[in-house]
Amino acid sequence: MSTMLSIRDVRKVYDGGGEALKGVSLEIEEGEILALLGPNGAGKTTLISIICGIATLTSGKITVGGHDVIEDFRAARRMIGLVPQEMNLEPFEKVINTVALSRGLHGLPRNDSYLDEVLKKLSLWDKRDTPIRELSGGMKRRVLIAKALSHAPRVLFLDEPTAGVDVELRKDMWQIVRELKAQGVTIILTTHYIEEAEAIADRIGVISRGDILLVEETGSLMRRMGRKDLLIELHEPVATIPESLSKYDLRHGERDDVLIYSYDTQAARTGITQLLTDLSEAGLVLRDVQTRQSSLEEIFVGLVRDNNAEDAA
């Protein structure tokens, strides 16, 4: 695959001296889905705004499909579609007119067959003559995506695309994203739903306080940084964990007859064998034992916490 979006040492400093981006560098491949995660104020929206030409960078270089976003901004902007978080739609306009207008704003000629195809893929065909104000929140989200796709962009930014929609519709949106990827569209997704990134992203990028903390293939990140929990189900509940087991930092599960032991999957020794021996010596009888992989959310929270601690030091 070739590089579709290249971000090199991009900085954004405001007039008051505040740094929103601190030398961000990132390469995104054609047809890739990258999930960009970060807490509020991390710099996600600032970075997207700069790439899309809504804000200006202080220094650095960004190219989209080889086009510099400053020196060749028209060609770069033509390759980009943006689905904003805000529902900035004209309430009394029909769906088809809303989407057609967006295409016209990019200077492209009318193409009814292409727009019809976009509406059909997004399950909006039956709503094409419906005023925006009569649509549900989920359908309005689909209209935003249709607007962004109206000029056939090769790079699509999705800023919190499933915020405020129910779980079923969220999964429908995931399928739409997968289909776009299959067509070779490069997708950059920002989300607060960690499971969303885990489910559909090829790579995960974590940004905090204007710094990219890491960018890594999703499965590799889970294997490298994930911890596993050993869930130990006992024959009888224990209200208090014996003092002899304190070195294992055991904790109760949802019930008093379940203990949880966390261990590093990359460590030379997990300590599980000795733990099971010590449990028996403490008089605890096991009913069942199973493992559970820690979630991406736990990894993300740990990375941001560590970064904040370093900044405060």
From TrEMBL:
The keyword ATP-binding applies. Keywords: ATP-binding, Nucleotide-binding, Transport. Residues 5-234 form the ABC transporter domain. It holds the Pfam family ABC_tran. InterPro entries: AAA+_ATPase, ABC_transporter-like_ATP-bd, ABC_transporter-like_CS, ABC_transporter_ATP-binding, P-loop_NTPase. The keyword Transmembrane does not apply. This is ABC transporter ATP-binding protein. GO terms for molecular function: ATP binding; ATP hydrolysis activity. The lineage of its organism: Bacteria, Pseudomonadati, Pseudomonadota, Alphaproteobacteria, Rhodobacterales.
